[in-house]
Amino acid sequence: MDFTFTEEQQMMAGAFRELLDDLCSPEALRAAAEKRGDESGARWARIAELGLPGVLAPEAAGGMGLGDTDFVLIAEEAGRAALPEPLVEQAGIAVPLLAGLAPHAPRAAEILAQAASGALRVAVGAPGNPFVLGAAQAGVLLLADGDEVHLVERAGVGLVAQPSIDTLRALARVEWQPSAATRLVSGAAGRTAWARAFERGALYAAAQCLGLTQRMIDIAVAYACERTQFGRPIGSYQAIKHHLATVQVKLEFARAHVYAAAARVVDADQRAAAAVSSAKLAAGDAAELAARTGIQVHGAMGYSWEVDLHFYMKRAWALIGSWGDRSFHMRRVQSLVLGGSLPLGSDQTFVRS
Amino acid sequence: MDFTFTEEQQMMAGAFRELLDDLCSPEALRAAAEKRGDESGARWARIAELGLPGVLAPEAAGGMGLGDTDFVLIAEEAGRAALPEPLVEQAGIAVPLLAGLAPHAPRAAEILAQAASGALRVAVGAPGNPFVLGAAQAGVLLLADGDEVHLVERAGVGLVAQPSIDTLRALARVEWQPSAATRLVSGAAGRTAWARAFERGALYAAAQCLGLTQRMIDIAVAYACERTQFGRPIGSYQAIKHHLATVQVKLEFARAHVYAAAARVVDADQRAAAAVSSAKLAAGDAAELAARTGIQVHGAMGYSWEVDLHFYMKRAWALIGSWGDRSFHMRRVQSLVLGGSLPLGSDQTFVRS
Amino acid sequence: MAIDLRYTPEQQAFRAEVRAWMAAKVPKEPLASLDTAEGAVQHRAWERTLNEGRWGMVTWPREYGGRGCNLVEWLIFEEEYYRAGAPGRLNQNGIFLLGPTLMEFGTPEQKARYLPPMAAGEEVWAQAWSEPQAGSDLAALRATATREGDTYVLRGHKIWSSRAVFADWAFGMFRTDPGSEKHKGISFVLFPLKHPGVRVRGIPQIDGETGFAEIYLEEARVPVANRLGAEGQGWHIAMATAGFERGLMLRSPARFQMTAKRLIELYRRHAAAAEPGLASAVAQAWMDAEAYALNTYRTATRLMAGGSIGVEASLNKIFWSELDLAMHRAAMSLLGARAELEKHAPDAGDVGNWLDGFLFSLAGPIYAGTNEVQRNIIAERLLKMPR
Amino acid sequence: MAIDLRYTPEQQAFRAEVRAWMAAKVPKEPLASLDTAEGAVQHRAWERTLNEGRWGMVTWPREYGGRGCNLVEWLIFEEEYYRAGAPGRLNQNGIFLLGPTLMEFGTPEQKARYLPPMAAGEEVWAQAWSEPQAGSDLAALRATATREGDTYVLRGHKIWSSRAVFADWAFGMFRTDPGSEKHKGISFVLFPLKHPGVRVRGIPQIDGETGFAEIYLEEARVPVANRLGAEGQGWHIAMATAGFERGLMLRSPARFQMTAKRLIELYRRHAAAAEPGLASAVAQAWMDAEAYALNTYRTATRLMAGGSIGVEASLNKIFWSELDLAMHRAAMSLLGARAELEKHAPDAGDVGNWLDGFLFSLAGPIYAGTNEVQRNIIAERLLKMPR
């Protein structure tokens, strides 16, 4: 029983954070927002240099061969920075999906190394998500037709862009025709592959929400310490302090859910489902509260494009609805816990099937 | 369109309040609590002298011939005082129930005047409430057998006392045998009578919750102004101020619901049902929050029997579960409003069938 | 029974009149946002149409373009206005805030000069309350009005002026006594926005629009007659204006009842997938919108009987702002994966204006005096708790 | 992967050992409340039984009656303790608060004197923190310990001493420097309750029991050797004790997980009548109880790896107290008309201990440092906001 991150894990996340402080400065985000989803190839290249797209790829495919408890800290940092490029979706979902299919599907094996190095951009259209993130910028797409997993070239699909309030997210509905040539797997293998992809999607959306929450707290605290009203910094008023402390409490306990879900997402069983849904709800709720509190603390200033807060708020709102919205995850927990299929009790918390 | 109380209505409530300040002092409540439900005949007599049991009885039966918008302020005062005797149940439920049945049931007509004068104590066992309040002290009981309304002598029933945390409430399960001799009405007449009684029960429980909320705020404010910590009265801290202001907001808008429900409870239609449920929920929620906030403001002192707060908290908790609990009323509103049977829109608020 | 919650035949006839007029005149297609240049033009045209029907500000005396309606008639008017889906009021800073203030503090000349074109929508007003260092703490303001004979020379920097980009006039507070501090030595001054020495710069908002602006005053000269009330009385007048802002008129119940109705319709479409707590949240929203309506009628008829409005304004402000936020949060939850879409997205479905409304509702607890300040007011003035 | 959320075989064996012992020894019938005379006797007997099995305080060194268990073993022990429905700990002020404090600040003699009978439940401890004018503001305390040679003469009035009615000893703070103010000149002193000059008066509670007491100290004389730490170091020691109170040990996650399980069972019995929001409230309670457990394991393994606990204690305190309140409020709603019944009422049905628990949960945000104070601590120490 050990629930701590290693020094190496923390160092890798720290290095990524430093890079992002540079790559995702407010000026950089403002520039990216104006291009609305035309991401910077330069930023992607810098991230790929760190090897991050391949964290979850086997070493044989040129990856790092690491696990979800390694990548969860990376996803958190991507959230904290409101990274415009869909690194989390490629490295956290597409790459392990390809790696899982590689033994059964030669075409998956073929592109895995390119995906892991970041040379090839891979977008994912998973069941449960109506839109695909980063489809326009991808080289290939992994798409669902029922249980089947298909691999399709970007040139082979039509895209209907769906503008998001988060102008750093390039969303699209994908129009395409499945065929035997595009199919990687079907049946139970496909179902399992998509189920795992969906759980990772929800887990890493939750991890990003942790980072976003921390960032929104940091911005609000900085503003509250600087802005004065009635002759005192507003951060010295109890009402402001208590609002922000409440967000911090929510964040801390959301962390426990997210890190625990990272440790068991591979199990893909009922308990993993409950853990992932708990993580998604807790982190999403923390981020939602952080956004609201951030606006309250900033007053009218929070509405200004010049204040950075809005980048993180919008990303939070977008992620809360992605990879299963609040209703989906709450109903799933209710079905498992109230419905009686999950054994209850404190001795069950760490049971794995 | 007039949503104000007359001077006469306010004066009658004011006179009752003054009497209760005398009759329900903390010492008097403490004494009553020790006797656990053996109410003071002297207190009842003083209240009866004011004619209050007969507010809703016709003048021909010696009553005041007034309406629910008159009695609602009386019920509010009874709540504010945590009055041990079930005046509200007798005057607000039993008397109009008897008055409604009198034209069809001679025995109801016979006892109406005695009930209105307070000479006879009448307890009510309505459908939806598992227990009867004040049964042991009543001369007669109005009891339900399906849709039928029965009038039974106290001597003709067995009582199984059910101790409440509110030691000022004498609750019992009533064991009895319905017979043709005890039956006042049956069928549709009985169903309508019980439906009206239930709506009034819920309405006046809500009205009492208003008074209880105001009293709990008053007690907490007085304590917060007097108690000092860190060299200042605790009532000067923003956190305490904001907690109490939040209760006051809830109270104010609960008032609007309760007074509006009083004006339409006689309609006994869907819109009246929605109004009564809204009132019960809003006033109950306000009282629940007032109790929690009261305890928070008092700190450990709130747990002490010597501090008066607990009388009002316990009454609030008891009333929240009576005459339809939170779930009953919330589900009723959902069925009417989300289910689509109630027309929606701002021009519908005051529509009456 | 004095409480009588029924409309009189006259009130019913009034409702019918409003309803018929709105049915005939309200634009069939929604106008562009009033925070865009195109929308501002469209909304000015709508205000002209309204005024032709003498509906610009029904509670005002006829001499100023109104109908002399009482508060219940005003509530009925608003109910029908929202029911008809009529456009937002471009001139709300004028009609709801400055209008009542002028009525109370203006000279006969000022009323005659400013009120009729305000009701007609010919002169659109912006507020100029905040300054960069004076937000909730308005008393920290620094802008000055220096008297030179019959002229004030205005200098300073106002910010968060809603609607100022497309408005004609603004009202604000200026220090007329240069050595004064806090609430003293402040005067309430009206000034044109298209005027030498006045520069307006829109503030880009997070939704890309410019509902707010900064106003730079660089030796803008206006007649002393533009001052409302006495010199140095500005704080007192501004507090009255703030009371109007929080009070009965700015947020009519019909607005929230309309949102509640739309939320219920949204819920019904998404009920199958919604987590159960949303059913209770939506029912609660309906009840709270009703409570706000009921309470407003309660206050309105009390005022008509000679009462006055005090701390109720603070109670109202907290209640409607939290209700509005709760309704929009529930809507965002119901919209799920589509909640992030802009309303013109091809697959926006029933997203409609919910996202815009959500952004706006987040501001509810802030503007017109933050809810924190309102809670202080309730605690100190109503509950008599120590400062 | 360093994170490994699996128990070792040794930990599994430890769980099996605890489970077997508890199955054999836990009383089949619930004991009377430990705030009654009868219950106090029964609970003392249970503490003796526990100690016979060497389960009095498993984390303590063997020399003091413990087993030298690490924090994960402690968590496992607590899980099995609650799973077995074992009685509440009569001596929690001793074992969870004073015990760790003695371990850190006591002399070898003091540890040898006090810890073994504490673990054995032979000496039951009460805390004597608050005074009538010093609640959250402990620094305002007035009780004095006047030194006369090797003796302290204690004078003062302590209040809200939990468990003092049936306890043997108490620990508290006294001014040893009569001219001192606030945090200075305070010492931490242990004193017997059955002792000349010490008078204990139970405070009747709203539930009719006497879990709290007042302690009147009228020239009670104790040896100077009863002082913990140096003279004047009392505040520093007391803050450490308060840290233990809020910290890891007082509220083990198993307690809340057990409540969540009971709440789910209650929900299932009442689901047909429950308003839909309760389904979400109950599911949320389960998730939050799991979060508290997960976070405690996170902290525990961090501490085992050499970390220290700081502001986390304040985060924990807020979280568990709000969780406990939310669970009991949901239970009260589910119980509906029966929620007001005392547990011995003939028709109490499944009311059980929910009402007692609800009353107790209302105190959660107050004791061990109010949640308001905890939020200040988080804001000022963790978020570095200005005082």
Describe the structure.
The complex is a heterotetramer, with two copies of chain A (353 residues) and two copies of chain C (387 residues). Chain A contains eleven helices and nine strands. With 353 residues, chain A is an alpha+beta fold. Chain A has a four-stranded mixed β-sheet, with helices on one face. A three-stranded antiparallel β-sheet of chain A has the order 2-6-5, with no helix packed on it. Chain A has a two-stranded antiparallel ribbon with strand order 8-9. Chain A starts with 6 loop residues before the first helix and ends in a 16-residue tail after the last helix. Chain C has three domains: 82 residues, no CATH class; 108 residues, Butyryl-CoA Dehydrogenase, subunit A, domain 2, CATH 2.40.110; 132 residues, Butyryl-CoA Dehydrogenase, subunit A, domain 3 (Up-down Bundle). With 387 residues, chain C is α+β, with helices and mostly antiparallel strands. Chains in contact: A-B, A-C, A-D, B-C, B-D, C-D. At the B-D interface, strand 8, helix 9, helix 10 and helix 11 of B face helix 8, helix 9 and helix 10 of D.
Note the topology.
The complex is a heterotetramer, with 2 copies of chain A (353 residues) and 2 copies of chain C (387 residues).
Chain A: H1 7-23, H2 26-35, H3 41-49, H4 68-81, H5 87-101, H6 106-117, E1 122-125, E2 132-133, E3 140-145, E4 148-153, E5 158-161, E6 171-175, E7 183-185, H7 187-226, E8 228-229, E9 232-233, H8 238-264, H9 270-298, H10 309-321, H11 326-337
Parallel strand pairs in A: 1-3
Antiparallel strand pairs in A: 2-6, 3-4, 4-7, 5-6, 8-9
Helix pairs in contact in A: 1-4, 4-5, 4-7, 5-6, 5-7, 7-8, 7-9, 7-10, 8-9, 9-10, 9-11
Chain C: H1 9-25, H2 37-52, H3 71-83, H4 92-105, H5 108-119, E1 125-128, E2 144-148, E3 151-162, E4 169-175, E5 186-192, E6 198-203, E7 212-223, E8 227-228, H6 234-246, H7 253-270, H8 276-304, H9 312-335, H10 354-363, H11 371-382
Parallel strand pairs in C: 1-4
Antiparallel strand pairs in C: 2-3, 3-7, 4-5, 5-8, 6-7
Helix pairs in contact in C: 1-3, 3-7, 4-5, 4-6, 7-8, 7-9, 8-9, 9-10, 9-11
